[in-house]
Design goal:
Layout lengths: L11 H15 L3 H8 L3 H5 L9 H13 L5 H16 L3
Protein name: Transposase
Organism: Deinococcus arenae
Amino acid sequence: MVTPGTTSQAHTPLKKQMVALLRDSFTVSERRACRVLGFSRTTHRRNSPKREKDQQLVERLRVLARERPRFGYRRIHLMLGREVAPQDSVE
């Protein structure tokens, strides 16, 4: 199982802070600071989307996956669709 702290994406905020520190301390360009740290400039500039609106859905998906570990993503998707569909109907 992959834990959030072990992926390279988990280090992105730290690297962004390091780039800012290098730029402020040594007055170097963003390009040079990213190159020194081995960090892609596009990743440095990219702002990840906020996923707060999907947080409830993600939590429900995780609960279903824990309750029924043998169900695959397709079956859990159908279960979620059955739960959500009646609430979204327009009368």
